[in-house]
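User: Before I run my own analysis I want an independent prediction to cross-check against. Here's the chain; please return only the structure tokens and, at the end, one sentence I can use as a sanity check.
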Amino acid sequence: MSIDSLAYANNLTHMDWALIISSLQTAEQRLKTSERLILNQCKLIWSLERTGEDTTSAMAVFREMERRQLKHLADRERLFAELGLVDAGEVGTRSVNTSRTV
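Assistant: Structure tokens:
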């Protein structure tokens, strides 16, 4: 099914479709950045633990990063649902496909 027919079937204009695709790309980038930051924070926590230092603050930052990561995942899933590519309740790992066919 082409993007045009999918957009029509989901009552989306070309502008709506483009905006959602752009938002999906932003969400994907945020997820990648967030994953990298979370990994770096884990390394910091491990380093602090190895040297016997307090990890309380580092763990608080880590938990906030995890919370943000979940928000980015939810945003991405909502956008996929708006495109009609998945059921609104379906959750999974996907990436943005901006090709003209689906």
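Sanity check: The chain has one domain: 3-83.
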